[in-house]
Specification:
Blueprint (H helix, E strand, L loop, with lengths): L16 H8 L7 H13 L2 H29 L1 H4 L13 H32 L11 H26 L2 H6 L20 H22 L4 H18 L9 H4 L5 H11 L10 H6 L4 H10 L1
Helix pairs in contact: 1-2, 3-5, 3-9, 5-8, 6-8, 6-9
């Protein structure tokens, strides 16, 4: 794998991370992150393992780190209660949150880890890049915007199908265990739902990469991180004055997805509102009001 450095790593097989990072520093055109990226792949000298480690660790660290603010909010109801959407229901107990964490860790290691290990061969098959340098920020932003809209469409129709009786009972019922969701429940789902929705996340980068050859793993990691943050925030159970949906009206946000859990049907999209509005599947009193006005 060519990392565009004027040195080889054949003689550096037993080198440490700091030694390899110093070697990467011989190229003055690389950013700190690009040097760290090169160091990681050079150290492991196995691209499948290196990609698996960086992808899985990023997923775990970012997921649970993003849940921390919502755990704190639930632990301080006196301070954050006024922002709670379903304010008549008590915050989840520590026991409930710990039970949720254990289930999610099981899903992450049993279901998602094998998918992550297989991602590198899939990435190479579909023509995604992972060598340095990284793409520019404009390219990353445009591609992530495309991924958000494509995934939202996939999620809407699959999620709507999950509410059909047989699919609900066999797949989706697990996720609806919590009528008042909290941050950790974003990935509280059955193995089949985890895999099928996961395809909606990794599918758009793979398809775009196969057509253009211009999708980088760094873009995929940034996209997955933002998609995680969106899912966690949507399940947080809190709506603040500074929430994104108040700035960007097309954005669904936590109040939108909370209605899905509260009223069970409608609001099937993941990130945006347009499919639910167009298809007449807006949930709860808001949807009834819209239909009455029509």
């Amino acid at each position: 794998m060519d990392f565009h450095l004027n040195s080889t790593v054949a003689a550096q097989a037993t080198a440490s991370y700091p030694e390899l990072f110093a070697l990467a520093g011989q190229n003055p055109n690389l950013s700190w992150l690009e040097k760290a990226w090169w160091t990681h792949y050079a150290y492991w000298d196995n691209d499948i393992i290196a990609t698996g480690i960086i992808t899985f660790l990023a997923h775990e660290i970012l997921y649970f780190a993003r849940c921390i603010p919502w755990i704190i909010a639930d632990a301080l109801p006196g301070l954050f209660h006024r922002y709670k959407i379903q304010d008549k229901k008590a915050p989840p107990s520590a026991k409930e949150q710990w039970s949720c964490v254990k289930y999610i860790l099981a899903i992450h290691f049993i279901v998602e880890l094998p998918m992550i290990v297989l991602f590198h061969p899939m990435m190479e098959f579909f023509g995604l890049k992972y060598a340095i340098p990284f793409p520019d920020l404009k390219t990353i932003a445009i591609q992530i915007a495309i991924f958000f809209f494509v995934e939202d469409t996939y999620h809407y129709w699959l999620h709507r199908a999950f509410h059909w009786g047989p699919l609900y009972r066999s797949i989706h019922r697990v996720h609806h265990q919590y009528a008042a969701p909290f941050g950790l429940t974003a990935e509280y789902a059955s193995p089949w739902e985890t895999m099928l929705l996961g395809l909606g996340t990794i599918g758009p980068p793979l398809v775009l990469g196969s057509f253009t050859g211009e999708v980088h793993l760094m873009t995929v990691l940034a996209w997955v991180a933002l998609r995680q943050f969106q899912a966690i925030d949507a399940h947080s159970g809190y709506d603040f004055p500074w929430s994104l949906r108040r700035i960007f009206p097309l954005w669904g946000g936590s109040d939108w997805h909370d209605d899905h859990h509260r009223y069970f049907r409608g609001n099937y999209s993941s990130s945006f509102k347009h499919w639910d509005v167009l298809m007449g599947t807006v949930a709860g009193p808001r949807g009834k009001k819209m239909r009455k006005e029509e």
